[in-house]
Design brief:
Blueprint (H helix, E strand, L loop, with lengths): L8 E9 L2 E8 L5 E8 L2 E8 L2 H7 L3 H4 L1 E2 L2
Antiparallel strand pairs: 1-4, 2-3, 4-5
Length: about 70
């Protein structure tokens, strides 16, 4: 069994993130949507809080709804 099933994980450490490219959704002046390649520079995330999976199964929420990523 996964150890994340019973444990709530709290990480208050700074997490360095290296730069990366992504396709960003944008709108032009006519209201048409398009995607533009952008570069997100290196930055620091400031921890996260992840509930135990057993708490998510009891409350009926998925794991993705409870992950609080700051960054």
């Amino acid at each position: 069994m996964d150890s994340k099933y019973f444990r709530t994980i709290i990480n208050n450490n700074d997490i360095p993130v290296r730069g990366f490219f992504r396709m960003q959704n944008k709108k032009n002046d006519d209201g048409e949507r398009y995607k533009e390649l952008i570069f997100v520079g290196p930055h620091v995330r400031h921890g996260y809080h992840r509930n135990a999976k057993i708490e998510d199964s009891i409350s009926g929420k998925s794991e993705i709804e409870n992950v609080d990523s700051k960054g």
